[in-house]
Amino acid sequence: MGGLWTEIINMGRIVVWLSLFGLVFAGADTEHGDVATDRDGGGHGHHGEKHPEHNALHHHEHNAVQHPEYHAKHNEVDHSEHQVGHKELLKAEHRGGGAVGNAVQKLEKQFMFLLRHVTGLIDPAVSSVRSACELSSLQTRSYGAALLGGGVGDTLADYYGNSRIPADILTMPDVQYSYGFNLGYGVGFSAPFLLPSYVPSCSFSCSSLDFISLARQYGLLDYGLTGQEIGESKICNFGVDAKQVLSCLLQNKGDSKEAANVDFLIDDLVEAGKQRIRLQKRLV
Predict the structure, then answer these.
(1) What confidence tens digit (pLDDT) does each residue in 157-172 have?
(2) N or C, where is the chain less crowded by C-beta within 10 Å?
(3) Are 170 and 235 in contact (CB under 8 A)?
(4) 225 in a domain, yes or no?
(5) CA distance 231 to 54
């Protein structure tokens, strides 16, 4: 009986020792596999899990050092794509009613409005300046006639008041002097107000037809700047030519508010055209 219990105890000890050896070998294999994974897995083990930012930074520095031309080309492509995208956005805004496109359309409408407004103001302004000129001319001639009439009137008053006869004019020195002074004073001072060379002409050869003809030559009459691609120099030349064909009116801008208004609106017209052209370039 005692020998049986001894054998059972010995067998139990053997089983325990075998279990311990099995656990030791299993732990060693697991640790070996983790280390190998850390070394050969490219950062997917211990370091890959705890330091992903380190691996990303290392990868970026490696590419920056080994491939600088790649990054330069990549940056150029990004910049070009950004510019193209910006231009496409501006075009889309123009087509779809964006801020720049709306501003261009408003300036085109403003240009067309000013073109028609100036056309409508020219003939009334010419008529107003002509009326003012005729009135001024009448006043000038009236003043000259008054001076001449005063000299003649003084002479006639003396002749009839003193019952003069023609022989008195030929034989009496005081009468000759008096009549000569009166008539000479009247003619001398009235001549500048009566002679055509001193009185301004009220004949105006320019009209709205000249302005319309010029606008048609520049291709601006029907639609203004809408749908046209023209330069600022052409708009500036149009302004200069417009003032030239309307010179008979605009030369009176110092004395006529109507003429000054036409001159001012032509400048506004040119400025609106220039602003529209500058905005249009942003959509090209």
Answers:
(1) 988 888 888 888 888 8
(2) N
(3) no
(4) yes
(5) 57
